[in-house]
Amino acid sequence: MKKREVTFVNPTAAVANELQQNAETIAKEMVDSIIEMIGVEIPKQEIDQAIVVYTEYLGFLGDSIRNADELTSVGLLEWSKANGEREAARDGRISDILLRYPPTRLVFIDKMAEICLKHEVEIEDFIWINKRVNNMLDISINETVFAFERQTSKLMKEVQDEVDILSAPVVPVQENVAVLPLVGKMDHDRARLIMERAIPQVAQEKVQSLIIDFSGIVTIDAAIAKHIFDIHNILRLLGVDSFATGMRPELAQAAVEGGVDFSRINTFATVKQAIDMINNDN
Asked: What distance lies between CA 74 and its chain's CA centroid?
């Protein structure tokens, strides 16, 4: 009679196998437990996404337990980065990620203890698995937060770039005449941006008269006033007449303190007055 061969599976390997073979089922159980611990109502779409995320994570965890020499999976790092970028792209908050982290750790530890007991893992191996779980959770949360911050910074820069473009508009008002409205708080970066964007646009659109309107400026200091009025000198070299309008007394004083020579600049109370003068001269 032929003897039946019995295949022995190492308990640690059995844990890794179960994590990967039953990843989705385990993920659903864990997500339910985490939601219960958090005590916050979560939309179904986010719950479904969380199940997908934990299913993928359990796959990485299974690989990590099976490959004892591999401390950090490249796949885990990329996965964590993708999570952080996805959270930032959907206008998520870093606090939402951190809020889920403590209960996630507790649920993971409990679930791993349950699976290890089921497969009769020895205490030394259980401690090692527990350390591996916690190490991977720490790596994951760190990479997720870093990626979130990078993505958020990128999005903020894109928004700021759009704001910068809009903050230095050269607005045509009639043939060969345009207005450069200055609005809000003026700082050195903003002044530099105006120099870099407005002057090339004036040359490109063949503007002959540019009205620089200060009526929307909130604050300005002497140094920045001089920087802004340097536009006049550059425009003069380009053959463009420049005019200043909307100069309130405090702004005019700041300009004088900055060494601006008003005698070389035509100033008017309003944009309309400047346009009327330009039309009369023509």
From this structure: 24
